Amino acid sequence: MLLCHHEGKRSTEDAKELFNEVEKMRCSSSPIPVFISGDWDVFEEALIDVYGKIELPQYKGIGRKPLLKLVPLDDLKYVKVLKKKVKNFVVETIQRIVFGDPDEIFEMLLIVPFEHRKHWNIFLKSILFI
After folding, report:
1. Could you tell me if residue 4 is inside a domain?
2. How sure is the predictor about 54, in pLDDT bands with cuts at 50, 70 and 90?
């Protein structure tokens, strides 16, 4: 399902605009969607900016008190699909979970009906970014 479309550069600001549009379309009672992308580092930073919370790390009693830190929400799920290529041919795809519980994400992938799994696997192998 395509929630929104945003054209722009591959910058953090454009990624933030995309995620803000997704957040506007999402009902507040619905869970945060699973985000999947290629090896694109600006997504990680933009996701934390949009779906993050400010946390104060615990002070250990030595040195300066720690600064506030922006961390992802507990229910944020983000997976990177990395492609290994040899002579412009994809020889292997690796799914790396950046945010979220691996068991929960794996379970979500298994919920895909059997007849659609082939298409889901093709989607994961060919994805650039969502």
Report:
1. no
2. very high
Parent domain of 47 = 12-126
End-to-end, the C-alpha distance of the chain in Å comes to: 10
What is the overall mean pLDDT for the chain? 77
Burial of 9 (C-beta count, 10 Å sphere; 0-12/13-18/19+): exposed
Q: What's the structural domain count of the chain?
A: 1
Q: Could you identify the residue written with the tokens 């934390």?
A: 48
pLDDT in the model for residue 126: 46
Q: What's the half-sphere exposure (Cβ side, CA atoms, 13 Å) at 62?
A: 0
Q: Is 103 part of a structural domain of the chain?
A: yes
> What tokens does 46 get?
């933009």
Instruction: Tell me the pLDDT band of 130, cut-offs 50, 70 and 90.
Output: very low
Residue 81 falls inside a structural domain? yes
Q: Whole-model pTM?
A: 0.69
Decide if 7 is inside a domain.
Answer: no
